[in-house]
Structures are given as C-alpha cells and as structure tokens.
Specification:
The protein is of the alpha+beta class and 758 residues long. Helix content is 48%, strand content 22%. A hairpin with a 4-residue loop joins strand 12 and strand 13. The chain is elongated and about 175 Å long.
C-alpha cells in the first residue's frame, strides 16, 4: 500500500479542476474553499428541507471531482454484519452505477500491503486500514485516493477518487476535510432518517400521539444540525423563536444555553454598521424582490472581538395569505477568508495607481483609488455602473473596449496610453489590462502626466540644442560658399550632360528621321509633277474658253466642236476626278512632315522654365513618332493607354526617358519581336510599363544597369549614359523606375510618377 507524501506538495490539474497544493496561490485556495463550502451548505440546507441523501451526495461528489480535477469517484455506506462479510453500498458514483450496487470488502486487517489498482481495491484498503490510502503518484498512469467517512466516532462510509493528473497529496486531504465531515453527517443523518421512518411506521402502527412524532422530528433535526460545523437555524417567524444547532452560537465563542435562541439575540450581536443593510435585505426577500438573503456581516464574539459571518437565508413556508411562517438559513464563519482578502487589499492600497475590476461588458465590479477625485465617475456610483456611462470620448471608449475584450479573450497583457481634459488641464494616463477571470479583467490606471511633462521638457532641450546646431550650421554655410558654387557648377554640367545625351540620341535617330521625312517628300513631289502635266493638258481647253468669251459673235458651233474634241482628247473627266485625290495625298504628306518637325523641335529644346502639367499618354505618342523608324523594322508596338491625371514635369526630360527606353527595347530584340506600352493610375501615381520580348538581362547586368557609362552595346554604339540619365530624371521628378528581366524572357521597365495635386 502506497504511503501518503510527507508535507504539502504541488498537485497538477487539468482545466476542469483547481490546483490544491503547496504552491497554490492563496486566491486559488480561497476560491476552491468557497466553492466547496457553498456546495456543502446548500446540500445541508436541502437535507434539512427533506432532500434525499443519495441525490445530495451525488451533487457533492460532482463538485469535488470538478475541484480536484478527478475523472471518477464513489461515495458508499459501509455495511458490516456479524455473519456476512462487510460490504460497501454505493450511494453516489461517477460514472454512475445502478442503485443498490454493493462491493464486497473482502480484505482483512492482516492482508499484506499492496498498491491498489482500482477504486474497488482502494475501498478495501481504506476499510482495512481505517486511514486515507493513496494509489499511484506523480507521473503514474492511474492515481487513486480513498478516504474514510466517520460520524460520532463511528465509521459510516468511504470516499474514493481516481484519475487526478499528478496524483493526490496530504494538502488535498486537508482541503477535503469539510467535505468528508459533511458526507459522514449526511450518511449518519440518512441512517437517522431511516430509523426515524421506521419509528414513524411503528408510531403509526401503534397510533402514538402526534406530539411524540413532533418530538422525534425535532430530535432528528437537532441531531443533524448539531453534526455540522456551520450554524444552521430554523426561524418561526410568528414567534421569533429559533431552532438552531450548537454551531449557531459556538462560532462566536458562546456555549449552549448562554444565549437565548431568538431573532432578537442574533440581531443584537450584529455590527451596527451592518445591521441596517441586513434588515433591508430581509425585508426585500420577504416582499419577494430577491430570491435569497445573502449577506457578509460582522458579529460580536464573546471575547468582544468581531468575526465575519456569511449568512444565507430563505423563506420556506407561508400561510394562505402569503405571510411568511418559516425561514431557514446557514451561518458560515468567513473570518479567515476576510483576513486574506484584507491582506490582499492592503497590498493593493499600497499602489499609487487606480485599480479597477471590470466584467467583459464594461461593468465596474470593484475598484481601488488612492485619490477618489481621479475617478471619472463619483466613487459612490462607480460599482455597478458601466464604462460607457463614463464621460469619455467615443473614440477612447472604443479603444478601451477593444483592449478589454482582447485581454479577456486571449489572456494578453494590454498596455496603451490616452489623454483626458481635466479641470486642471490635460492629464495623461497609461492603462494595463490583464484577465482575472473567465469573464472579467483587472485594469491598472497610472497617471503619467509627470513623465509626459518630462518628455516635453526633454523635447524643449532638444529644440534648444537644435537652435545651437543651426547657428553652427550657419557658420559652416558662411564658410562653404565655394562648395556651394562648385555644386551649382556641377548641376549645370549635369544639365549640359543631359542635353548632350539628348542630342546624341537625336543624332543617332537622324538617319531614320530623314528617311521618315523623305517618304512623304517623295510622293508630294510625284503628285506635284502629275498635277503639272494635268495643268498642261487643260491649258488648250482653257485658252479656247477664253477666246469664246472674248469673241461671243464668232462661229459658236465650230468653237464648241473644237472644245468637245479637246475634252475627249485630253481625258478631262479623268483629270478632274484624279486631281482632288492627288491634292489630298500631298496635303497628308506635308502634315506628316510638319508633325515630325514639331516632334524634333519639342525633343531638342532645352528645359529652362518651370514644370508643366503634361499628359503622359500624349508625350508617349509624340515620342513614338520620333523613334518610329527605329521600331517599325524590328517589332510590333502594342499600346494600352488608360485614362491618366496630369503630371507636373519637364516634358522634354520625360520624353527623353521614353526615347531611351523604347530605343533600348528595340535594340534588345534581335530579329522580330513585340514592345508593349501600358499606362494606368494606381492611387496617387501614374504608372508607365514598357515591356519587350528581347533577349533579357542577367542579375549581374541588372545590378549595374543604371551606373554611368555602363553599356552592353559594342564599343562605339553606346555612351552608357542613357539609363543613368533616365534614372536621374525620374528621381528628380520624385518618381522611381524599376526593371524586371530574365535572360531569354525579355525586360519590363516600370516608371512611377506622382500625379499632380489638383
């Protein structure tokens, strides 16, 4: 048989149980103890009102399994006969056994000690030893605990618990003592109840007087009430007399008979500051406004000190008019608990911060405020009020509820700052929120105004340092005029370099542009030669018409015949139909020449003025006209121009960027390919993509692509300045240029320029 561990030791638990052990916090122990005492008090009160012991034991067993984290257990009554072997009749079990199930307790006191492996074995071991028995230990797969139940020095039953992770220890047995006492008393009371019922049956059979039955009932009640540790009482509200157990006054140090059992006696012991509220709660309950009187109050002990007592009471009988006749209740000494709470409160009172306990919906449950005037709600109205009733801005309330919900939901520590306008000025606060229960959290509010003021003073000092730095910089500027002049000269040289690169690009395109101009010039000259022939053919006819008009009296018939012959001979009808087409073709050719000349003039001019509002689509179309001769023999150009807002820029510089990218794209295509030009607006930016299906670039080339004088073209065919200049132009316009490329998969240049502010 396993021995119990010496001294308290920590006991692990699953989420369904509480931790009861040496390392458990006072708050956890207090919460578990309160839960167990409430269950015991409720069961005892229900037993007094006639509840079945078996049902009450089932309730108590369920509570203990939850508090200890055990998964199964039994409560049984020991049946020991003179002839038959002892047995255990199960009164409560989880999982539930059939009513009347019995276990034979076959072990003898001389049986050898062994490790129990089941609840049935634990029961036999406890019956044999008469003491608590533990099976399994920390880390064991199966753990068991058996405890004897006694009442009045007699062993009346057994309790068995099983499958608690981490096993059972002596600290847990101490925690379960009130439960063991209550179960023993319930078993003893149940036996007394059975004896009372048999006595009642005998009384009915012998037709004894009703007064004797009342006496037996009163005796049974007193026996039960005297067997529990808490004060139990039954008040006759018509006479004010109390029927109470010995603990009713014993918890205050009074012996039986020292005080009269009346309602007035109890009220006379109540602290003056608590009596009025207690009376109010009783009256509210009598009127039906509240279902139960539950009150923590101070009671005067025999030695003159004060004890904290938790009183719960309820009316259980009324007459036909609804007037209360009987009230029953319990009194539990909670002085130790209140002292623990007071120590915790004393610890909190040392904090200089505001401490608030709130439910998830924002209701204030408790608070601590060193200076009540710092609270946003008057202290007397704070408890029970909701955070949304506080005079906070809506945005701050939303922020507080967001952090409160996250702290309760996720268990995180939420920290944030906020400011409030107070009568004495703006105050700054820091809030820290931590979950303190399944549906509540504790907030610590600290006034950080002094820290903010210090930070402000620090900023002022930094500003003072900045002013000193500025004065020093002014001295440096005064001594750096030569450097500034050199910088200006460098910028002028850079502008000249850009213009030179532009003219170099223009020179490279000169042959293509000349070819573009030569085509329309050729067919304009051809059309003019044809028109000259047409005019020569029409001259005799026009001469004849002049003679006819100057000599109207001549031979009209002869002149008309000559005109008709000339008309047919010179094919005047064909000439008249062909001349408009020749003139239109010539005009189109001259317009084409004019467009090319205008584009060249626009491209070649030097930017000296302010930026202009430019339509990027228009600039792209104009640039395509300039470089068309470089593109038309190598690729097909596909346009996808979207609607764009205007861009504030130097148009010739932007056109130069487009020219460099389009010409480079054409050079990257070795035989025949495609160039795709796409424009769009993304947010506040104008985006231009120029993609080609050329040979692409390696990562090494991409890393040096915008370096001045770097080129992949053969010597003499490139300056290495085109992309470097383009990069500088785009950066100068507060834009950016990116490139994506892989060998054999072409390249895509993306230009992003900020749209002009409207």
């Amino acid at each position: 048989m396993a021995s119990l561990p010496q001294g308290p030791a920590p006991v692990s638990r699953e989420s369904s149980g509480v931790t009861i052990g040496g390392e458990s916090s006072a708050e956890e122990k207090l919460r578990a103890s309160n839960a167990l005492l409430r269950a015991i008090s409720s069961a005892q009160a229900d037993f007094i009102r006639g509840g079945e012991p078996r049902d009450l034991l089932h309730r108590l067993l369920a509570v203990v399994l939850e508090l200890t984290g055990s998964t199964s257990g039994v409560i049984g009554e020991v049946l020991a006969g003179t002839s038959a072997p002892a047995s255990l009749r199960l009164l409560a079990s989880v999982p539930r056994e059939d009513d009347g199930t019995t276990w034979e307790l076959g072990a003898t006191r001389d049986a050898p000690a062994q490790e129990p492996g089941s609840l049935r074995a634990i029961a036999g071991a406890v019956f044999t030893s008469g003491a608590p028995v533990q099976g399994g230990g920390p880390g064991a797969r199966h753990t068991f605990l058996g405890l004897p139940l006694e009442s009045g020095g007699e062993r009346v039953g057994l309790v068995g618990l099983a499958q608690r992770p981490g096993g059972y220890d002596a600290g847990l047995i101490d925690f379960l003592q009130p439960f063991l006492t209550a179960c023993g008393d319930l078993l003893a009371g149940g036996r007394n109840e059975q004896r009372r019922r048999r006595a009642e049956q005998e009384l009915r059979q012998t037709q004894e007087a009703s007064a004797e039955r009342v006496r037996l009932l009163a005796e049974r009640l007193r026996l039960m009430m005297d067997s529990v540790q808490d004060g139990l009482w039954d008040l006759d509200m018509t006479t004010g007399r109390l029927f109470a157990n010995r603990a009713w006054m014993g918890m205050l140090g009074y012996a039986e008979g020292e005080l009269e059992h009346t309602q007035g006696t109890w009220m006379s012991l109540c602290h003056p500051e608590d009596a009025e509220e207690t009376e109010r709660l009783v009256q509210e309950h009598l009127k039906g406004a509240i279902a139960l009187v539950e009150r923590e109050q101070r009671m005067r002990r025999k030695d003159g000190g004060w004890s904290w007592v938790l009183t719960r009471a309820r009316v259980v009988a009324r007459d036909e008019q609804g007037r209360p006749l009987r009230m029953v209740g319990t009194n539990v000494d909670i002085t130790t608990q209140k002292r623990t709470e007071e120590r915790l409160r004393a610890l909190i009172r040392t904090l200089p911060d505001i401490v608030l306990r709130q439910s998830a919906d924002g209701t204030y449950l408790d608070y601590h405020a060193p200076k009540p005037e710092d609270l946003a709600v008057p202290p007397e109205k704070l408890i029970g009020s909701n955070m949304r009733e506080a005079p906070f801005p809506a945005s701050l309330l939303d922020k507080m509820f967001m952090h409160l919900g996250r702290a309760i939901r996720e268990g995180t520590l939420e920290v944030f700052d906020y400011a409030l306008e107070m009568p004495e000025g703006r105050e700054y606060y820091e809030a820290r929120i931590r979950r303190s229960g399944s549906d509540e959290a504790v907030s610590i509010i600290r006034n950080i105004t002094e820290r903010k003021l210090f930070e402000s003073r620090l900023l002022q000092q930094e500003e003072e340092l900045r002013r000193h730095r500025d004065s020093l910089e002014e001295l440096v500027r005064n001594r750096s005029e030569k450097l500034l002049k050199a910088t200006i000269e460098l910028e002028e040289q850079q502008a000249q370099l850009i213009q030179a690169e532009k003219m170099a690009s223009l020179g490279q395109m000169a042959a293509g542009v000349a070819h573009e101009i030569n085509n329309p010039v050729s067919y304009v000259m051809s059309n003019l030669g044809t028109l000259d022939q047409y005019v020569s053919s029409l001259s005799p006819l026009l001469q004849l018409q002049r003679e006819l008009l100057s000599n109207p009296g001549g031979s009209l018939t002869e002149q008309l015949e000559r005109m008709a012959e000339l008309w047919k001979q010179e094919e005047v009808d064909y000439l008249l139909s062909d001349m408009p087409e020749l003139i239109e073709e010539s005009l189109a050719g001259t317009r084409r020449i004019k467009e090319i000349a205008a584009s060249l003039r626009s491209f070649a001019r030097e930017d000296t003025g302010e930026p202009q509002l430019v339509d990027v689509n228009t600039e792209l179309a104009s640039t395509l006209k300039i470089v068309w001769n470089e593109l038309k023999y190598k690729c097909e150009v596909k346009r996808d121009f979207g609607p764009l807002p205007p861009v504030s820029c130097h148009p010739t510089q932007i056109s130069q960027v487009f020219t460099n990218l389009l010409v480079n794209a054409a050079h990257a295509i070795e035989t025949r390919g495609e160039i795709r030009i796409r424009t769009r607006q993304e947010g506040s930016e104008v985006v231009v993509e120029i993609a080609d299906t050329g040979k692409g670039m390696t990562q090494e080339t991409l890393s040096k692509l915008f370096t001045p004088f770097f080129t992949t073209k053969p010597r003499g065919q490139g300056t290495g300045l085109g992309l470097s200049v383009s990069y500088g132009i785009i950066a100068k316009h507060k834009g950016r240029i990116d490139v994506q490329s892989q060998p054999g998969q072409g390249s895509t240049f993306t230009i992003r320029l900020p749209a002009a502010q409207r």
